[in-house]
Amino acid sequence: MLTSNTIKISQLKQKANQLASQCQEPCRDTVQILETTGRDCQDIANKGARHSGLYFIKPVKAKQQFLVYCEIDTFGNGWTVFQRRLDGSVDFKKNWVQYKEGFGHLSPDDQSEYWLGNEKIHLITTQSTIPYALRIELEDWENKKRYFTNEPSKKVNLQYTPVVSGDAFDGFDFGDDPSDKFFTSHNGMQFSTYDNDNDKYDGNCAEQDGAGWWMNRCHASNLNGKYYQGNTCFGYDNGIIWATWRSRWYSMKKTTMKIIPFTRLSIGDGHIFPEHHFYFYVSIFVQFLF
Ligand SMILES: [Ca+2]
């Protein structure tokens, strides 16, 4: 007994020494951040970058640079990705400051969930007189092939409000009430969080639906909604919703929201990534004015 304990103690001491020596080694950052920098991902692509990944950008009015995931294609289009849902690993029920600053994690292969942050989106989208186009990619639980493009058609400027229009952002006629479409339109709505209610509803849409979003009374889309594994969103319309494609009881599996100067939209057609055939697309003008 005594011998076996002595052996165990000796093994533990050895292990402790090993760990102690490991801890003395300086930390190494194994995440690759690419060298090119610019005002946004398009600027980075314009400078010759051809790899999607993590880059630092510094929009014109930004006090300091910050990290973004850039999706760059062979046509030289550089999309700045600001929202990613894929497995429910990040809770999107966050408060005003968290949506402002951003949350979740950026990864070099874009396989992590995050919201870049309203302040950063604002700095990117207001740095030029050229408006940005927003592209939304959605994937359902059946990998059902569907492709749809809504070309940008209008631009409206409203203070403290993003300009989102087109498709589900224009509301949806659910058939419950003649005013459904009007009251679920997101165009011109202010951003709301559970602690900052700017919606058009007596109650609090953001609290009720667990998301920061451009709530009206309340929504026809809510891509920051609650993540339901396997679309088990029965009875609640608080999932990841895009009502013009799937019903408000259907919660998406994956979403991406990304922006690019709209002048780039005609260059290439977005078909170069084969997996995009599994996505539903909408392209709209967006300008985040906070
Ligand atoms: Ca309210």
From TrEMBL:
The keyword Glycosyltransferase does not apply. GO terms for cellular component: fibrinogen complex. SUPFAM superfamilies: Fibrinogen C-terminal domain-like, Fibrinogen coiled-coil and central regions. Its main location: secreted. Keywords: Blood coagulation, Calcium, Coiled coil, Disulfide bond, Glycoprotein, Hemostasis, Metal-binding, Secreted, Signal. One of its GO terms (molecular function) is extracellular matrix structural constituent. Residues 32-263 form the Fibrinogen C-terminal domain. It holds the Pfam family Fibrinogen_C. It comes from the Eukaryota. GO terms for biological process: blood coagulation, common pathway; fibrinolysis; platelet aggregation; positive regulation of heterotypic cell-cell adhesion. It is found in: Secreted. Heterohexamer; disulfide linked. Contains 2 sets of 3 non-identical chains (alpha, beta and gamma). The 2 heterotrimers are in head to head conformation with the N-termini in a small central domain. This is Fibrinogen gamma chain. It comes from Gopherus evgoodei.
